[in-house]
Request: fold
Amino acid sequence: MSVDSDHATLWQQACEHFAAQRHADAEACCRRLIVIAPERPLAWAMLARLSLLRGRPEEASRLAIEAGTRSAGAPWQEAIAAGIVLLDMGEKAIARELFSLVDPRDVTSHATLHELARCHDALGDAAGARHCLDLAQSLPHRSTTPRMPTHA
Reply:
């Protein structure tokens, strides 16, 4: 299996464990993801969310910063997913940086553009939100992009 295939499989497992509230299993998947591809932000972002859920805000902030620093050069899907986690955690400055790495013209999913618009709006960027919504309207078909679960 390739690193990308292993990463995708482990990420899917981590999301499934997280959604089922099997947080220890989700954390184990994330730790393995970091060994496989430490430069990718998703596992760092989920670990930050898990730390926050466990009442460890200092650790969550440290991991959120790791997610942010690893997002440059990551696929736009990962930058958006990590940014959503950071925004949900209240790490607005880091989330803003991550969203600035994403060119909305590269996004091909209506749902993702709407989510990106929501994030820009939450950051007080009405122009960025409007731009994403306008791009979503211009897409020829409706497609979806999976994202990190937001519930605990």
